[in-house]
Amino acid sequence: MIVTWLKFIHVAGIALWSAGLIALPFLYMQRRGLEDDALHKLHGFTRFFYVSLMSPAAFVAIGSGTALIFLMATYETWFSAKLFAVSVMTGIHIFSGLMILRLFEPGRDYPAWRFMLVMPLTLLTVSSILILVLGKPEMAWPEPLADFFAPGRLGELAEPFIAWMK
């Protein structure tokens, strides 16, 4: 029963987080030409959206996903690819937060080329996660990466740096 609830929480967190990452560039595009009160309102809303909704959703999604890893012991190749896509999504999240800090300084705007770069990357990442999780495709890593993504490999790589493993 706990796994079912954790999956529900995980899916809800991922859905909110993904929707937020898709919505943010549209908010950034509204920055162009705004000044004074309108600029401060957009800035306040964007920060609230990022700090109070998206970031907690990301935390819940990653936390519940981590708990599910331990409860379900998933060691499939598709799962490693999904974790890679989640790390890309986390990077997009971090850079979105940095963009909020810079975008609302005087004289700044969000260029169309950046929107055209970020939107496809975000949509591709979210779509990849959905395809991997729902399809659970049979995959094989290319030979140089197969050993790197083997279950337990991270522990082997980190062993020299962790005192209690020596």
Main attributes?
166 residues, mainly alpha, 76% helix, 0% strand
TL;DR?
This protein has 166 residues and is an all-alpha fold. Helix content is 76%, strand content 0%. The chain has helices at 2-29, 36-72, 77-103, 112-135, 143-146, 153-158.
Whole-angstrom Rg: 19 Å
Tally of helical runs: 6
> What summary fits the major beta sheet?
none
Chain oligomer state: single chain
Unreliable spans are none
Give the amount of beta strand, in percent: under 5%
Helical content, roughly? Answer: over 70%
Distance between the termini: 38 Å
Outline, from the CA principal axes?
Answer: elongated
Characterization of this structure:
This protein has 166 residues and is mainly α. The protein contains 6 helices and no strands. It has helices spanning 2-29, 36-72, 77-103, 112-135, 143-146, 153-158. The chain is elongated.
Secondary structure layout:
Blueprint: H1 2-29, H2 36-72, H3 77-103, H4 112-135, H5 143-146, H6 153-158
Helix pairs in contact: 1-2, 1-3, 1-4, 2-3, 3-4
